[in-house]
Design goal:
This protein is an alpha/beta fold. It has two domains: 175 residues, Rossmann fold; 90 residues, Pantoate-beta-alanine ligase, C-terminal domain (Pantoate--beta-alanine Ligase, Chain: A,domain 2). Helix content is 39%, strand content 19%. It contains eleven helices and nine strands. The strands form two sheets. It has a six-stranded parallel sheet with strand order 1-4-3-2-5-6, sandwiched between helices. β8 and β9 form a beta hairpin. α7 packs across α8. The protein is globular and about 60 Å long. The structure holds pantoate (PAF). The site of pantoate has 10 residues, from β2 and α7.
Length: 283
């Protein structure tokens, strides 16, 4: 399996492979690959002749320096995992910051129409400009036909769709379902930092979302929010960052329940110094 650390090598490789009628799939990641990532790569392999997986811990999307320092770095293991899926059809791009950003590591500014102000945006200022910047650069280098993202980061997904609409980059965004641990916890590279007790307790996050989905048509938004806050305020391990029910296109909080709007519930909790997010469709 080829692992390119410089875009010149990757671009030359892609130019050699590109032929009319053959499509290129792309899975951007920050490494520490788990089954969630592998499900994206499998989807990409099933729909494209060639797949590029990028592994790059993007500094501009971290607003907490501690989070950046502690982010797991496991390139050799990641490459071995990818080899179990295909040896010939996957190419890895694992660049340095200089290769992607040059000498100035900073974000572009986007107008995401308010999508970036909700939830993760208000908790992590500048995060989505960082995501938009790196994904745009990666799309310009890789020039994929299809790019694969998981629903676990639903707000990120909407931001990337918006960035593609703004920049008119010719790439189709393919949405893949969230992969979960047996206890319901959404798969994430951060899960590796949970202690066994924290991991077990984290089952509460998805259980809470499932309850909200079940009760969505029967209880008011306020009653559901109050119930969720109670679940976490009485728990010794968790700190609830936000719980929000939003309309899916704008991500704005819904004012009153409506059967006619597509809604999703979003949650972020801190457990120790690990931040976990999840979401569920409601109707
Ligand atoms: O979801 C992620 O892993 C990252 O935000 C992404 C899309 C690879 C950009 O750095």
């Amino acid at each position: 399996m080829q692992v390119y650390t410089a875009k010149t090598g990757l671009i030359a490789h892609i130019n050699k492979q590109k032929q009319p009628g053959l499509s290129l799939g792309f899975v951007p990641t920050m490494g520490a690959l788990h089954q969630g990532h592998l499900s994206l790569v499998k989807a990409a392999l099933s729909m494209n002749e060639y797949v590029v997986v990028s592994i790059f811990i993007n500094p501009t999307q971290f607003n907490n320096p501690n989070d950046l320092i502690h982010y797991p770095r496991t390139l050799d293991k990641d490459v071995s995992l990818l080899k179990t899926l295909s040896k010939d059809s996957i190419v890895v791009y694992a660049p340095s910051s200089e290769d992607l950003y040059g000498s100035q590591i900073k974000s572009d500014c986007f107008d995401f129409d308010g999508l970036d102000l909700e939830m993760e945006g208000s908790s992590r200022p500048g995060h989505f400009d960082g995501v938009g910047t790196v994904v745009k650069r990666l799309f310009e280098i890789v020039r994929p036909d299809n790019a694969y993202f998981g629903e676990k980061d639903f707000q990120q997904l909407q931001i990337i769709k918006k960035m593609v609409a703004i920049t008119k980059l010719p790439v189709k965004i393919i949405v893949c379902p969230t992969e979960r641990e047996a206890n319901g916890l959404a798969m994430s590279s951060r899960n590796a930092r949970l202690s066994p007790a924290e991991f077990d307790a984290s089952a509460l996050i998805y259980k809470t979302l499932q309850y909200v989905k079940k009760q969505f048509n029967y209880e008011s938004r306020q009653a559901l929010s109050k119930w969720v806050v109670n679940q976490f305020s009485t728990h010794p391990l968790f700190e609830l960052d936000y719980f929000q029910i939003s309309e899916v296109e704008s991500l704005a909080p819904i004012k009153k329940m409506s059967l006619h709007k597509s809604c999703r519930a979003f949650i972020a909790v801190n457990i120790g110094d690990v931040r976990l997010i999840d979401n569920i469709d409601l109707n």
